Amino acid sequence: MLSTLRCSQNSSAAFFIGWARAMGISMNRWEPENGLEALKTGLLDADVYGPSAPLLAGLPNERPPLDPQAGIVPPTAHGIKIMSMGLMADQGTPLIWRGPMVQTALYQMLRDVVWGTEDDKLDVLVIDLPPGTGDVQLTLTQNTQLAGAVIVTTPQDIATLDARKGLAMFRKVNIPVFGVIENMATHICSNCGHEEAIFGEGGAERIVQDFDVPLLGRLPLDARIREQTDSGKPTVVAEPDSTIAQAYREAAWRIGAAQAAERVDHSAKFGSIVVEEAK
């Protein structure tokens, strides 16, 4: 729960999604949130330099309105509230910023966005991170209270190397790691349906064994995912009854189960207890 931020006052949980360096991860980012159908969900795209959430959500030209009393009002796509630097700047404009400016932008998207109200509270705020362990990750981990992290990687060693570093970073800053999702686990041929592990096999399995965390799901590389997300309709929306959509839902359910299994410290809600000797 982001208890020190504006959205925390209206959110009962917040997931922290750490995305490993892997081609195609951004295409699949939108799907797990759509698998949390029973929850009121928000998505914060924290990839300041390469924001793509507006395109994935079908909001490429959207500009969020400003409520003078409350703050920035995030647009909604497929029932999910979304905030991204892609909604604040033109798509073709690069953000050539140093660390302090990135930190300021993240604070604004967390504190100054109307993620919820007393009558319309978020259940989950998903924060999508860029690859690495740099300014964005440190800013969020040091200044927010987060429920946990999910690591996403493709199977090959060059991707799992970064995933391992990200997982180790979350543990160093005492953020629970809910588990690992393996993206592009197998390629599904659009002509014959044959499955092939073109990026190798076992990368995510080795991570979960070495770090003793759950494997939350294995997602396929399928042309339909690319086509649907490019058009602003993620697979869970475009083909809700497909096997691909079911894979995303199962990953989302496992994330929720992992979060529910984590111990929550409620000590801050109670006053100090002082024991005095009887006079």
How would you portray this structure in words?
By secondary structure, the chain is an alpha/beta fold. Helices cover 33% and strands 19% of the residues. The strands form three sheets. An eight-stranded mixed beta sheet has the order 5-6-2-7-1-8-9-12, with helices on both faces. A hairpin with a 6-residue loop joins strand 10 (187-188) and strand 11 (195-196). It starts with 10 loop residues before the first strand and ends in an 18-residue tail after the last helix. The relative contact order is 0.18.
Write a short abstract of this structure.
The chain is of the alpha/beta class and 279 residues long. The chain has helices at residues 25-34, 53-56, 99-111, 135-143, 157-172, 203-211, 223-230, 235-238, 243-261, and strands at residues 11-19, 41-45, 66-67, 71-72, 76-77, 80-84, 122-128, 148-153, 177-182, 187-188, 195-196, 215-218.
The rounded distance between the terminal residues' Cα atoms is 43 Å
Kindly provide the radius of gyration, computed on alpha-carbon positions and rounded to a whole number of angstroms.
19 Å
Shape: globular
How confident overall, as mean pLDDT? 80
Percent range for β-strand residues: 15-25%
Stretches where pLDDT falls below 50 for ≥5 residues? 1-28
One letter per element, helices H and strands E, the order comes to: EHEHEEEEHEHEHEEEHEHHH
Helix count, per DSSP?
Answer: 9
**Structural class by secondary-structure content:** alpha/beta
Count every beta strand, where a strand is a DSSP E run of 2 or more residues: 12
